[in-house]
């Protein structure tokens, strides 16, 4: 089992959390930290408080942007977590749901390929074209 941390600019992390609750009303072990207009120092203090709380657990961290401030701060602090850990940049709802639904059955290393697959964009025209081509065979 692993904990899930969603970190973002603005209120995106909390919005993802609230949306996850639509699918699973009783969520435990999912945390959010947001970089808001209070600045980076307050954000880092929030991260430090969370790390202190869950540092001995396995932790899967989702950030909104690769090389954005939330990603950069967590990258510097990643070794503060003592268990298995990974950062996934470019969070989206399908990836979060996959991680959440499988966290009691899979390890972080086992879930990563599924998260990568869930994180891929799906274009309607490609999907329809592939389905038509599959029907032709």
Secondary structure: elements and pairs:
Layout: E1 3-9, H1 12-23, E2 30-35, H2 40-54, E3 59-63, H3 69-77, E4 85-89, H4 93-102, H5 108-118, H6 124-136
Parallel strand pairs: 1-2, 1-3, 3-4
Helix pairs in contact: 2-3, 4-5
**Rg on CA atoms, Å:** 17 Å
Q: Write out the CATH superfamily name.
A: Phosphotransferase system, mannose-type IIA component
Question: Which strand order do you get reading across the main beta sheet?
Answer: 2-1-3-4
Task: Please tell me the CATH architecture by its name.
Answer: 3-Layer(aba) Sandwich
Total number of domains: 1
Fill in the CATH topology: Rossmann fold
For the record, what CATH class applies?
Alpha Beta
**Strand percentage, roughly?**
15-25%
Largest sheet: 4 strands, parallel
In DSSP terms (H or I, runs of 4 or more residues), the helix count works out at 6
Roughly how many Å apart are the termini?
A: 42 Å
- Note the run of SSEs as H and E: EHEHEHEHHH
What would you say this structure looks like, in words?
The radius of gyration is 17 Å and the shape is globular. The chain is of the alpha/beta class and 137 residues long. The chain has a 4-stranded parallel β-sheet with strand order 2-1-3-4, sandwiched between helices. 51% of the residues lie in helices and 17% in strands.
């Amino acid at each position: 089992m692993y904990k899930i941390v969603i970190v973002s600019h603005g209120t995106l992390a909390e919005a993802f959390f609230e949306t996850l609750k639509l699918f699973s009303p009783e969520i435990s072990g999912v945390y959010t930290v947001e970089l808001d207009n209070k600045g980076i120092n307050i954000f880092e203090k929030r991260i430090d408080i969370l790390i202190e709380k869950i540092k001995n657990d396995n932790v899967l961290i989702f950030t909104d942007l690769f090389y954005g401030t939330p990603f950069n701060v967590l990258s510097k602090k990643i070794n503060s977590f003592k268990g298995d850990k990974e950062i996934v940049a470019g969070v989206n709802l399908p990836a979060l749901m996959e991680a959440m639904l499988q966290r009691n059955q899979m390890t972080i290393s086992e879930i990563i390929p599924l998260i990568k697959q869930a994180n891929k964009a799906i274009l309607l025209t490609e999907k329809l074209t592939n389905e038509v081509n599959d029907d032709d065979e």
